[in-house]
Amino acid sequence: MQQTMNALVEFVVPEVKVEATATRRLIRTLDRFLPGPQPLSATAATILNETAARVKPAAKRGKSASAFANLSRAEKAKVFQTLEALPVEVAGSVRFLVGNLPDLTAFLAYSTPAGRRLAHYAGVAHGRKELKGYWQGRRAAGP
Amino acid sequence: MRDVIVVGAGAGGPVVAKELAARGLDVLLLEAGPAWEHSEREWSHHEDEANNPATGIFRFGPGDRTQAPWARDLPQNCFVWQTAGVGGSTVHYFGNSPRAMPGAFAGYDGTDARGYDTANLVPFTYRELIPYYEWVEQTLPVQTAAMGTKEEQFLRAAAKLGLPTQTSKDISRAAFRPQENAILQPQGTAGRTNKSKQLVYPRAKGCTFCGHCPQGCFLPLESPRNLRAKRSTHTSYVPMALTADRWTRGKAVTLVADAFAVRIETVDGKARGITWRNTRTGTTTTEEAKVVVLAAGPIETPRLWLNSGLPNPNDQVGRGLTDHYLDFVVGRLPHYTGSSKGPTSAARVDYPGRGCLEQAGVSPGLQAQGVTDSDAGIRGFYDNGLPGGRLIGAQLKHFLSDVDHLIGIAVITDDDVALENRVTLSTTMAPDAHGPVARVELRHRSARTLANREFLASRAVELVRAAGAREVLRVNWAPVLLHMQSTMRMGPVLTNEAESRWVERLFVADNSALLNALGGPNPTLTTQALATRTAEKIFIRYFGGDPWVGRESPVSSVDDTVTQAVLAAGF
């Protein structure tokens, strides 16, 4: 599961400096989002790995224990394409989970200190010197 | 027995609570989430701490964050952005407070009258709602937004495209303008310095341009709670409700947080009270009231109705969810835009009959989330047959390599009510401690909705190009549910006074009472105006009172009398 989640982070935001923190936060977020007999991160990893094995059967026997991690970037994209093609009437919950994985991963990666630096973000603040005045000098709407 | 119990302290509930408390009624206000009594210490500007949907401070879940968030059955790719706690989703909202399109109301006779969701018009005239708009606009208050760099560039680009400036609060033609925001204009050092030490109240008043609207506004530092820049109900209506015995001759509202309503009590077909569960202790409590007002939001209000076994003879409870089928267009510019700074959204364009565009600039985590959430595949790999697509990998890193070189535009579609889009009780997920959980299905978009969205996305692309963008991304969002409306509609479910058709003394005062998507404008102000009208109807019908809107002048939530009341009450 760890390797699959790490591969997902690396797929979305390939940046060594954010991977460890983002992977840890991704697992924590998924597992806290919907507690159950099986952690949600494990469910997500199972879905990604089983689909990876369908996209490329040889991926089950690669360098990593995670089939998803053994795929190329194009093959990983194919995993998402395959899952997004599932009919919503029968696989709605899978579509929900899988659909949210890339953006949740991106949110978490760019919320880390290293992610904020990647975006050249000025950092959190109590205020900014950014006031430019009012459009056409209007401070209130007319009637 | 109370006079009134209000379920939910989000955008609408506190409006009813404050208005009726000001008339001297005994009001109990229940909130499922936390009270945020010390928000200046409890909230954080760091995105993962604030906005993480599972563990964040602003999530739809109990105040005890060692517990999981509350579950929903969401059987499609979508994201629900909702916050539990006093203020509800207004704690993370952007404060945008436009009035609705007049064409979304009955009696509209403009030349474009056929261009709206004509099967689902608000059952009274726009003119009737104007005094209630004015009452809320003065109470919050709503003010014309000041500009930062990103607004300057957005507005100049709109002018360059030949659009006129809109100067009125009423929308009558395609036009652009600075937002009318529930955000206090900057004064003193606010917006004029980066230095925290100089940004303390009263040297700084109003919006400090920190760029953290989605993380909750507790600024300027050391300001009284009712003088914080962004006018969430946590800052405006709730402090007024809790001190209604001090700033006017009313009765202070009793607020109970961590109180998840689990059943609407009825006797002889009339609402009689509420049973709620304390989310920290698990104990349940029942209180009786002469009138009950539901304001738990467009998912939880129908869930509570259905879990209470109340009548649903026409099967309309929960049906007709609209969400403005939002989309996101982002331009990458060769120069500075200040996208992560200032109010999140302070400029807009309205297209009657189509919807709206609004500038939206956020910090890197939410920005990254915004460009990676799509139903249209991954750019460069596959597109699911749809325009747009999410960025990942090197493309994502390149696009976000300087967050302050972006201009983001939220596409807000006037979407038609579709009965297939609905809230029901889930039969596939296990019930939680509050009963069967809500299932939210989004299954249909009308041809008009789809055409409106494409029209607006094209206009957004033109706009960011006119602003100087060299690279433009249209994301084609999967449904992002942050403007949820119309699941308990006036007409099919409620009377024109927002009272239940089938249970007397039971009213609805949140976005779910809206009959349609309002033509596209952000719904909060209209819900608050409607909630004010509903409070007046309750007072007249069940308490023998007289109307006050249009006859009296409202007291602003930033009035000195309120500040003194808030300070005396120890907030």
Please characterize this protein's 3D structure.
The complex is a heterodimer of chains A (143) and B (571). Chain A is mostly helical. Chain A has one domain. Chain A is built from six helices and no strands. Chain A has helices spanning 2-12, 16-33, 40-55, 73-84, 88-111, 113-118. In chain A, α1 packs across α2 (16-33). The longest helix of chain A is centred in the last third of the chain and has 24 residues, at 88-111. The radius of gyration of chain A is 20 Å and the shape is elongated. The N and C termini of chain A lie far apart (60 Å). Chain B has 571 residues and is an alpha/beta fold. In chain B, the strands form six sheets. In chain B, strands 1, 2, 9, 10, 11, 12 and 21 form a seven-stranded mixed sheet that branches. A six-stranded antiparallel sheet of chain B has the order 5-14-15-16-13-19, covered by helices on one side. Chain B has a two-stranded parallel sheet with strand order 3-20. Chain B starts with a strand and ends with a helix. The mean pLDDT of chain B is 98. The interface between A and B is large, with 66 and 91 residues.
Task: Jot down its keywords.
heterodimer; A: mainly alpha; B: 571 residues; FAD/NAD(P)-binding domain; 7-stranded mixed β-sheet; 6-stranded antiparallel β-sheet; 13 helices
- The percent of residues in helical segments of chain A reads 55-70%
Q: Quick check: average pLDDT of chain B?
A: 98
Q: What is the CATH architecture annotation of the domain at 2-65 and 82-144 and 222-321 and 483-568 in chain B?
A: 3-Layer(bba) Sandwich
Structural class of chain A: mainly alpha
| Count, helices of chain B | 13
- Largest β-sheet summary of chain A: none
Radius of gyration of chain A: 20 Å
